[in-house]
Each structure stands twice: as C-alpha cells, then as structure tokens.
Amino acid sequence: MSAGTGGATPELSPFDVLGPLPSGTTLLEASAGTGKTWTIGALVARYVAEGHARLDELLVVTFGRAASQELRQRVRGQLVDVAAALKAELARDGAGDPAGGPDDGPGEEADRPAPAVDEVVALLCTGDRATLEQRHARVSSALAHFDGATIATIHQFCQQVLRSLGVAGDTDASARLVEDVSDLRDEVVEDLYLRGFVDEESPVFSVADARRLGSTAVGDPQAVLVPEHAADGTPALRRVRFARAVRAEVERRKRRAGLLGYDDLLSQLATALEAPDAAARVRMRQRWRVVLVDEFQDTDPVQWQVFDRAFTGHATMVLIGDPKQAIYAFRGGDVATYLEAAATASTHQTLATNWRSDHALVEATNRLLEGAALGDDRIVVRPVGAHHTVARLSGAPSDAPFRLRVVRRTDVSRTTRPTRGLRMDQVRPHVDTDCARDIAALLASGAEWDGRPLQAGDVAVLAHTRRQLG
To answer: Is the pTM of this model over 0.70?
Structure first.
C-alpha cells in the first residue's frame, strides 16, 4: 500500500440510481457495504419498468453459484416490490385492480403484503395513469417469465452461449463439464515427474514442488510461465518445461476423456468471438441489450475479452466492483484487467454511501485509509458517506468505533534491547489473549446493539489464516 499521488486520480462523482439510466459502458466503483447487489436489482427494475429492455434482453452476471442465487432472488424481489406498489398506486387512482398478468409474481409471494416503498419504487410510481399501467404490465410480464431471465455465473453464461451457437461455437456437445480437474492434474504431475526424474538421484525439485508447479500452471492456463527464455541446463528451465508439459498433457487427457473445464468454456467462447464479424458476436448482441456484471474486480483477462468483444460499443454495460479487492487476484482477476476495462468505460462513477456501518466507524476508516493506492496509483481508497448516522452500539466498555492496539516489547519479552526483533510465536499468544479478553469484556458489559442485548453472534473475528482462529 502506498500513498496516492496528489491529483493523479480524479475524484469520481456519486452514482445516482434515480438519475438517467446508464448507457454505453459504465464502471461503478463500489466499496464493501455500498449496496452493489441492491443497485443491480434496482437497475434491472428500472430498465424493465421504463421499457428500455425486456427482462430476457438483460444479462446479469456474477461470480459463484451462491452469489448468482442471491442476485436472482434480489432481482425478483425488487420486481415483486415494484409490481405490488404499482398495483396499489393504480388502485388508489380509483379504477380497481389493473389487468394484465400476475401482479405479484407466481408462487408463495402472491399474497405478500405491499412492501415499504424505497426510493426506486417511489420513482417508478410517479407519472400519469397510462404510464403506470404500462410499467405495471411490463413488470408483471417479467415476473410471469422470470425463469427465462439470464442471471448466472460467468461459466453458466458461457455454457449457455456455446450451446446456442451450434456450429458457430467450437465445443463438443457430448463433452462432460467438470468443475474440478485437480485429480487429473495430480495424476499427470506424478506421471511426468516419474518419467522425467526416475534416473536422477538428486532431482532439481521435489514432488511437492512439482505439485505446486502443476497446480499453478493448470489453475491459471492463461498465465505466462516465466522465465520464457531460461538458460539451458538451469533449474529454471527444467521447472518451466515441466509446467508446460503438465499443461499440455492435462489438455490432451481431457480431450481424450471428453472432459470440459470452466476455463475451456471461456477460451472457446473468446475464440468464437475473435473475428469482428463472428456469428457469435451477432447472436449475443441480438439476444442481450443490457449487461450488468457484479463483483467485476474478479474478472480475469479472458472473461473481460468475452464481454469486450461481444458488447463494447453495441450494448449497455454496467460493471460494478471494488477495484481495491483486485489486488488479491481472487478467481484469477487482476489489477491490469480491471484497469484495461476502466479505459473503455464512457462513464466512471462510485457508489458513495455505506449502508452497513455506522458513521463514526466509516469516518475513522476514511481518515486512516483515504488516498492510499492499492496495486496502482489509479486504484485508491475513496471516501464514502454513511447511511447510519447514529451509533447503534451502546454501553460498551469503550465507545471508540475504531481502535488500533499496539503490542509493546515489554508485553512479550523481558529484554528491552531495541535491536532484537520479536518473533511471531512470541507476539501471537499475547494478541490472541488480548483479543479474547476484549471480546469477553464486551459481551459481559450489558452493551446493546440497535436497541437489543448484544449477542456473541454479533461479534466477528478475522485472521490471516484459519489455523490462527483455532
């Protein structure tokens, strides 16, 4: 982490979900707690209700099955809320229930009471009667055909597209999709290691090293293996050659076994989209007019290639993510990919309100981290406001929302020599004990959270590894 360079990164204007709907490519920076998923649900409701696109013309993508299910529920819930509010508004206008389909959507939510009106729902309930009737009809139709909505993980989306392409895609329809090829990879590593080092008394790297090399090479198949031009006879050359061989052999055995991995889906779709006049580009643009990508910072180079080739300049794209998290390279995402995508955006804004934390904590975090650059001078910690203006924790031993606790040398060591460093095995037991005592004092204090007694489940402890929490 480094301090941001003054003036190097321009301030971003806050995104207004009630303002003009995004067009072109819009990149929204969104820190934790600023409502990424809610914003996507609100945008879907507006695009549909205002007639900019039907639900089946929207593509909503996130990462991970659990996240896609949550997003699907959130989008449907937002549409149900809008339908209920529009129905109530039309009924108040004196004409009874509006006609035109399942107002509240199918299933158990049909008898759901009208929800509390949020700002987006309130916006969609403004206008003359004809406008409200049109919006109600569009939202009701979307709910009636909700199963046809494309709200999926990136891999589910790629699989759907490749299947629909037929001869336009380069995939074997009989291939079996597998989530994990680690067993096959380990088999290849052991076979190639035995073949390459069986006659050597002192191999240049161990079996454990070989497994790590294989895992890295296969886990990120687009990564460049370096050094690319290692000198003959060096251990570096043997490692690179081994990693390349593992990659190639895993691909060969997958084809022979009729297996298809998630990375294969991405690569095949990117290839199908490569030509400017590719049939895949035409079909995808005909199918989807608006594309919303959640957790965009986790996008890897090939995933961005797919979105860029298919939709840039031809569809509305809204990319929502926290670039600060890109430094962790979750799921293969990286800072370079995020910045490449940012360069194509016609609009770059931020979600500027934290809906999760209290004002005092948000302000303290702003003061500590604001302006810090993470991975690149263009990725900085930006200040956010807080929705919760009043502290919800009361009666705690300390009313400070943010504390940094320091371990002194005298706390863990009898020596006071400043030149002698402290080992982590000396420091960690003290930190663990101090944390446990602090939590115990908090739980025993009679403190309240948001008007109710504080419970153990309200406390979270984060550590670098799972072992440290044992």
So the answer is: yes
